[in-house]
Each structure stands twice: as C-alpha cells, then as structure tokens.
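Re: beginner question about structure tokens

> Can someone show what the tokenized structure looks like for a real chain? I only ever see the sequence side.

Sure, here's an example I had lying around. Input first:
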Amino acid sequence: MINRRKSKQISISNIKIGGDAPISVQSMCNTDTRDIKATLRQINELAEKGCEIVRLAVLNRDAADAIKEIVKSSPVPLVADIHFDYRLAIQCINNGINALRLNPGNIGKRENVEKVVSLAKQQQIPIRIGVNAGSLEKELLEEDIPLSEKMVKSALKHVQILEDLDFDLIKVSLKSSDVLTTIEAYRSIAEKIPYPLHLGVTEAGTLRGGLIKSSVGLGTLLAEGIGDTIRVSLTENPTEEVTAGFDILKSLGLRQRGVNFVSCPTCGRTQIDLINLAKSVEEKFKNLDKPITIATMGCAVNGPGEARHADFGIAGGINEGYIFKKGEIIAKVPEHQLLDKLEEIIIKSYE
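And the corresponding structure tokens:
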C-alpha cells in the first residue's frame, strides 16, 4: 500500500487533483490549436483512451480565439499552455479555459502578472507552474549548485509570486530529460510546498526509450507517494501517452482501468508460440474496460499455479492449451482455438 504525500486539493473543472483524489492522467495535443476541427478530433481520441485533462499550445491570439469553440465541445477539461504573453492568458480565461500552464515570473511586469492572477482567482482557474530544466532563468543557470536545486529554486520563486498575490490554486511540475535530476527535484519540492505535483520526464524520447525513462522516473516517485497527476511525454501519437500513463499507475496499484495483462517469459518448457499468443491476447482484450487480470503462460506445469491470482488465463501445451480461471483449469482447447475460447468464457462471465 502506497502512502501518498498529503497535498492541497484543487479542481480543473470536474477533475480533482491532489488530496485523496485519484492520480489523473493527462496529455497534450500536437495539433495547431487554430485548427478547431483537428484539435477537437484529437481531444476526443485522447478522451476515448481515458485521458482526463488535455493541454493545448496557445502561441498567438488566433489560437486563443479558437479556445472558445474548442472548450464548448471538449469532453474533458482543457489547459492553455502560455509562454511570455500575459494577454494570451487573459484571453484564454475569458474564452472559458479550465486551467493555465505558465510561469508568472516570465510574463513581464508585476502589473501584468496581477491582471492574470486577479482574473484567474475570480474565475477559480488553477495555474500550473511548469519548470523545465532546459529553460531556467539565466541567474539560476550561473549558480554553482546541482541542476535539480536550480529547478526547485525556480519553482519556489514562481510560487512566491502567486502566494504574494493571495493565490493558491497552484500545481507545480519540475521536468528534466534526465531521470535522476527529475526524481531529485520532485523529492525536494515535495517537502517544501503543500501544492499538488504534476509529474513528467520531459523530452523522454520515442515510444520504447520514452516508456523506459518515464516508467523509471514516474514509477520511482509514485512508489514514494509523490505525484498527483501525470503526463508521459513521448515522441509518438499522444494517445500512447495516455495508455502508458494508466499502465504505470496500474502497475503500482494506484489506478485500475481496463485489463491487467501478465505473461511469463519463454523457457525450455514452452511448447507453444507464446510470444505471438501473448501479443494476440493483449490485442484482443485491449479495449475491454473490466478491472480483471488475464494471464498468458507458457506451460501447464506451472502456469495456472503461478498465475492463480489472474481472473482468467491460458496455459500452453503441445499444439494445445488450457483455459484456467483463478488457478483452476476449466477447458482444454486446440492451440488455434485458444483465443476464441478464452473470449467466449470471459464474455459469458459478464453477461
């Protein structure tokens, strides 16, 4: 059982973050926000995968104008990603955005910060302070301290600006492409502020490498109870980020969405095409939204017993296999019929 860090709870529309709320999964559109149809299409694709919060890049006034129509049709809360121009933040709030991602110290004069914060406070719009190791303030870069400490100092400076304006609907992220730097930064900030933390390893890479970096970084922090919402950053279709996010949470018992798949490694006892069978099982049931575990095991000698925790499973034999349920074999089937028989048994169990 993971004991989560206690944090203040905030809400982005109907999604609660922090406190005792489930750890939410989010992603970011890679469309041109000005293209309303394409952006909404991708938002809906992400929502269908279970994404709970979507961030949109707002690079100019035309993108901020598009926010008004996008918000009206979006099935999930939206966050506007703002850099430097405080007017875009104000425009997005007036157009119905649910939250902002900006660093108050980067949007100019104090009076400009006050304008944004005043409106955000009035509309109850949370602000995520998003510190990135690659874009720290010049004065911090020159300090002779570890990078993770520079990131924390930057975050605390931006937090102080908001707190001085009596604003506390704050969420914080400290992302680096280096996994250990990311872990160290989040561990440090977690002890210094009461606000919820948005976890991520930035610029993690393509699907395989990015998944490994994100799983190590986010998994370490989540296992220590740190983190209230996550984004798995991948150079890939954003829907893969959502799937990966839920898989990471599922592996730690923090969220259960869809099927939990387990399969044994191949060994000399295996007499069945286990690799392709396991992939086929995962593909067949990937859209089954049931909190169950399905196992694909290589042999009937140890398979059912080793996977007795699984709700359903297959154990391979010679040109055949066994369907088991909670460790008990319930059917013997030719190899080519295994997948269809497993599907039949699972479907009947939920009729």
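Each token stands for a local structural state, so reading them left to right follows the chain. The mean pLDDT is 92.
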